[in-house]
Amino acid sequence: MSTAYVNCNRKGFIEEKIYELDKGEDPEDVINHILGMNPQHISENEKTIIGNYPNTYTYSKSMAERSLLKNHGKLRISIVRPSIVISSYEEPSPGWTDTLAAGGGITFACGSGLMHYVYASGSAVVDLVPVDYVSNLILAATCFTAKRS
Fold first, then answer.
1. Rounded distance between C-alpha atoms, residue 59 and residue 139, angstroms
2. Where are the alpha helices (DSSP H) in 36-129?
3. Which of 70, 73, 89, 121 stands 20 to 30 A from 100 (CA)?
4. Is the peptide bond before 82 cis (omega within 30 degrees of 0)?
């Protein structure tokens, strides 16, 4: 499970693939280097560490994909990259959510009447996908990958 924004640090046409690190570094070396840092140093230098990623979430998902690619061996893998996951459309019940973080909080607030509008540009694109769609895709991708020859 990754995110549609895993390659958001790139410009131009972005392929559905796992890109090498810009400097050709090993993802595990980068992760181990960060883990060896003083937490205060990480906090103070976060923007330098994550480079042109907008946040640590997209950066860590990118590193996870690269580590998976490096270590999967003969195991077939699939990576699902949804955009912003929100409450369910139908399953287990309409509007179900287990978190009020990120998109879940906004959809809950709007759906329950706590929020009546969201200030945004009329041309803004909102990439939301219900959690039941994502979980069904994960099951389908797993089956497809397992049956691939």
1. 25
2. 39-44, 46-50, 56-71, 102-111
3. 121
4. no
How far apart CA 58 and CA 66 sit, in angstroms, is 12
Residues annotated as catalytic (active site), given as ranges: 57, 61
Kindly report the CA angle at 34 between 33 and 35, in degrees rounded to 5?
Answer: 90
For 127-140, b/e burial (b = at least 16 CB within 10 A) is eebbbbbbbeeeee
Rounded Cα–Cα distance for residues 30 and 50 (Å) = 11
pLDDT tier, 36 (very low <50, low <70, confident <90, very high otherwise): very high
Query: In whole angstroms, how large is the CA radius of gyration of the chain?
Result: 18
Structure tokens at 3: 């995110």
Answering whether pTM is above 0.90, one says no
> What's the rounded Cα separation, in Å, for the pair 86 and 97?
7
At residue 86, the 3 state secondary structure works out as strand
Cβ atoms of 141 and 148 closer than 8 Å: no
